[in-house]
Amino acid sequence: MLWLVLLPFGLVFAIVVGLVALPFVILLLPLALLLWIPFLLVKFTLRLALGLLLIPMMLVGGLLGVVLFGVAAVVAMVPLVPIAFVLFLLWVMRRPMPVSSI
Q1: pLDDT at residue 92, rounded to an integer
Q2: Long-range contacts for 20-25 (Cβ within 8 Å, ≥24 apart)?
Q3: Count of C-beta atoms within a 10 Å radius of residue 2
Q4: In the chain, where the domains are located
Q5: What does the radius of gyration of the chain's CA atoms come to, in whole angstroms?
Q6: Helix, strand or coil for residue 101?
């Protein structure tokens, strides 16, 4: 429970240290960015290379998945073919309804 009593002092200390460090951070920010740019370029280059390598693989895998899913769907429908054939015959051989004249 003592930390609850001391919490305001810790927060004030953190704010004061942050405000004292702020000018140094602002002065060193251009140097940090200058040192960080090569790493950003390497990251961009690696992402581009991996993207160009993986996009064709993903397209082939997706196409293969669609084809396999289509084949599986057709195979799953094969047991329904006799029922569909009977329904087709009933549809073809139906009699026209007589038209009543009033």
Answers
A1: 87
A2: none
A3: 6
A4: 9-92
A5: 37
A6: coil
User: What tokens appear for 100 in the block?
Assistant: 């009543």
Give the Cα separation of 18 and 25 in Å (integer): 10
Distance CA 86, CA 53 (A): 51
pLDDT of amino acid 22: 95
Q: How far apart are CA 11 and CA 17, in angstroms?
A: 10
Is the pTM of the predicted complex or chain greater than 0.90? Answer: no
Q: What is the pLDDT of residues 53-62, one digit of tens each?
A: 999 999 999 9
Condensed to tens digits (0 to 9), the pLDDT of residues 30-71 reads: 988 899 999 999 999 999 999 999 999 999 999 999 999 999
Cα dist from 23 to 13, 19, 28, 30, 32, whole Å: 17, 8, 9, 13, 14
Handedness of CA 47, 48, 53, 55 (dihedral sign): positive
